[in-house]
Design goal:
This protein has 221 residues and is mainly alpha-helical. It is 66% helix and 4% strand. It has one domain. The protein has a two-stranded antiparallel ribbon with strand order 1-2. The N and C termini lie close together (5 Å).
Length: 221
């Protein structure tokens, strides 16, 4: 998942993992990054075009993984998602856990899948839900990314997160798919987990929905 970097003229162009790399290394306060994104000169025009775009296969996979990460952090994630959706005016789209499950089954990596792409309205609703859940879970996300916590405490948090995420992937995803096997490989799993937590943190707060949408529309995984 990669975020955009501006050129000298302020336009969004060269996609780069630079921002994520810096955050992973230093784990700074997320609000500083949010402020940086909010002042991009060409962001308004970009957001308009993004609202009309349809998520591709990679975007659907990443969106569902982010929802899995939410469930990993919140043991009552399913119920919390329904409650949150009603709070942000999405009760009609997510009237039950079954309706939410149906939309998530557009992820081709799942054991049970549905063909076709999500409509723009449905994908926007899921993106808004992820952003709202990230805001709700922000204190936990901040702790996991904070450099102020003792290494042993932080390490324990990540160990629990990685194990629960692994369990959910094994439960929900098609283990015969190469992409799913890669998610479970030890040499990749920790990096993927950190990317998911970082993306959730950047999806929280003002402008979080647009930042998340931009990352999901990026064709480069």
């Amino acid at each position: 998942m990669r975020f955009w970097k501006t050129t000298k003229g302020g336009c969004l162009s060269d996609r780069t993992p630079a921002i994520i790399s810096v955050v992973i290394e230093s784990r700074p306060t997320i609000k500083l990054l949010q402020k940086e994104f909010l002042h991009l000169p060409s962001l308004c025009n970009t957001v308009i075009s993004m609202h009309k775009a349809v998520l591709g296969r990679r975007g659907l996979e990443r969106l569902d993984l982010l929802l899995l990460a939410v469930e990993t952090l919140d043991l009552n994630g399913g119920e919390a998602m329904l409650w949150t959706s009603s709070q942000i005016g999405l009760k009609d789209q997510f009237s039950s856990r079954v309706e939410l499950w149906k939309l998530r089954c557009h992820n081709p990596l799942r054991k049970s899948t549905r063909r076709g792409r999500l409509s723009t309205e449905d994908s926007d609703s899921l993106i808004s839900l992820v952003s709202s859940m990230a805001k709700r879970l922000y204190p936990v996300l901040h702790q996991m990314l904070s450099a102020k916590e003792p290494d042993d405490v932080n390490g324990e948090r990540w160990l629990l997160f990685n194990q629960r995420l692994r369990d959910l992937i094994e439960e929900r995803m098609n283990l015969r798919r190469g992409a799913v096997q890669r998610l479970l490989e030890n040499k990749y799993s920790s990096s993927i987990s950190r990317q998911l937590v970082l993306t959730l943190a950047l999806s929280a707060g003002p402008g979080g929905v647009d930042r998340l949408r931009a990352s999901l529309l990026d064709p480069i995984p």
